């Protein structure tokens, strides 16, 4: 079997959520995973992960099993034959902008549960708003993510290079995995969470790019090659990922407030440039540094029996009150309340233990 224990990948909890529509329709999730060549023990396990190629196999397996492009998340699905007709409607368009508009018109006509639309952004680009009316019992946020992954990867394939997205708006909160994997990093653009709408923002320059693929056969070949949906062609790690890696190394050594100048020097860039590059990804140096410290504090509370005062000292706080104030800012509750609320949650405790083993201060 393939797919278990990749350090950077979609965790088993998210995999379980992707399978919710199929489970509600009577499919055995473990059978679907086996048929997708994924270890079934991934299912619901926050300590197990799948890579981008396994994700493609899983999505295709769910779609074929249900004969539904939307994975069983809507009351009214979209049969694969109808999806083929939708593809045919825009594969012969001249440009990405034309294909996008044709695709949205077709999608809007075939389903009451999907409500796409386009609005102009003050002459700087187009905002592609996606409205999804999911059925009870499924996680809407994971559907938004996988649909945006498909939109981004498919249209990037269609024009022969990665789309230069101007940004994403996500109604849900930022998802957090114990292994530190950021499932939104692949888009390489600023992401606004807890936004009023779910939307992708395209650059005008991309809208006039001509298509390089024009047949269903090419589309089928694309999927048969098992593309890696976590990979952005021609790009390495994002600045957020690089910055996070360096900060984790410093924090393992007990340096909790590494200055941006020190981190930038480790990354062979300048502090001003690093701040700029992080800003283009919708991040800030201070937010990353604070978030990493907060995540480790949460891991200590659930993955160890250390007294709260000792946890504060381990994380570099000289006074217990200072640690409590900072933790309330991270988690919205006191350390004692956080431990009391989640210590019985086996999934959270397992994830916290894994993070603690990986990032414990040396």
Strand ordering within the main sheet: 3-4-7-5-6
How far do the termini sit from each other? 35 Å
Q: Spans of 5+ residues with little confidence (pLDDT < 50)?
A: 1-7
Structural class: alpha+beta
Largest sheet: 5 strands, mixed
Q: Can you give the helix content as a percent range? A: 40-55%
Integer tally of domains? 2
Shape: globular
How does this model look, in words?
The protein has 362 residues and is an alpha+beta fold. It folds into 2 domains: 10-224, no CATH class; 239-359, Orthogonal Bundle (Arc Repressor Mutant, subunit A), CATH 1.10.10.60. The protein has 17 helices and 7 strands. It has helices at residues 12-18, 20-24, 29-35, 52-66, 80-91, 96-110, 140-159, 204-207, 216-224, 239-252, 260-266, 271-280, 285-303, 308-314, 320-331, 335-342, 346-359; strands at 10-11, 49-50, 117-120, 125-130, 167-169, 191-192, 198-203. It has a 5-stranded mixed beta sheet. It has a two-stranded antiparallel sheet with strand order 1-2. Strand 3 (117-120) and strand 4 form a beta hairpin. Helix 5 (80-91) runs antiparallel to helix 6, helix 13 (285-303) packs across helix 15 and helix 14 (308-314) crosses helix 15. The longest helix is centred in the middle third of the chain and has 20 residues, at 140-159. The radius of gyration is 22 Å and the shape is globular. Mean pLDDT is 86; it is low at 1-7.
Short description:
This protein has 362 residues and is an alpha+beta fold. It has helices spanning 12-18, 20-24, 29-35, 52-66, 80-91, 96-110, 140-159, 204-207, 216-224, 239-252, 260-266, 271-280, 285-303, 308-314, 320-331, 335-342, 346-359, and strands spanning 10-11, 49-50, 117-120, 125-130, 167-169, 191-192, 198-203.
């Amino acid at each position: 079997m393939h797919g278990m224990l990749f350090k950077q990948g979609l965790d088993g909890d998210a995999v379980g959520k992707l399978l919710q529509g199929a489970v509600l329709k009577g499919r055995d999730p473990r059978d679907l995973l086996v048929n997708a060549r994924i270890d079934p023990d991934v299912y619901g396990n926050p300590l197990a992960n799948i890579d981008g190629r396994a994700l493609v196999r899983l999505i295709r397996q769910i779609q074929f099993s249900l004969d539904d492009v939307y994975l069983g998340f809507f009351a009214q699905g979209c049969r694969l034959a109808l999806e083929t007709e939708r593809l045919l409607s825009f594969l012969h368009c001249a440009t990405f902008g034309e294909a996008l508009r044709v695709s949205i018109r077709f999608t809007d006509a075939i389903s009451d549960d999907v409500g796409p639309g386009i609005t102009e952004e003050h002459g700087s680009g187009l905002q592609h708003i996606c409205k999804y009316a999911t059925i009870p019992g499924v996680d809407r946020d994971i559907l938004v993510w996988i649909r945006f992954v498909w939109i981004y990867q498919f249209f990037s394939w269609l024009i022969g290079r990665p789309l230069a997205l101007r940004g994403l708006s996500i109604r849900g909160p930022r998802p957090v995995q114990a292994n530190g994997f950021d499932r939104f990093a692949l888009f390489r653009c600023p992401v606004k969470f807890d936004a009023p709408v779910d939307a992708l923002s395209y650059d005008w320059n991309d809208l006039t790019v001509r298509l390089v693929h024009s047949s269903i056969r090419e589309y089928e070949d694309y999927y048969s090659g098992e593309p890696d949906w976590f990979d952005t062609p021609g790009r390495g790690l994002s600045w957020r990922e690089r910055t996070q890696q360096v900060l984790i190394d410093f924090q393992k050594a007990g340096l909790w407030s590494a200055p941006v100048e020190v981190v930038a020097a480790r990354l062979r860039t300048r502090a001003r440039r690093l701040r700029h590059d992080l800003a283009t990804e919708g991040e800030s140096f201070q937010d990353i540094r604070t978030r990493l410290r907060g995540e480790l504090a949460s891991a200590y509370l659930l993955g160890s029996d250390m007294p709260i005062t000792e946890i504060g000292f381990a994380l570099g706080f000289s006074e217990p009150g200072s640690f409590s104030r900072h933790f309330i800012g991270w988690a919205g509750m006191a350390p004692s309340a956080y431990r009391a609320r989640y210590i019985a949650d086996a999934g959270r405790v397992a994830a916290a233990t894994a993070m603690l083993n990986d990032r414990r201060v040396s």
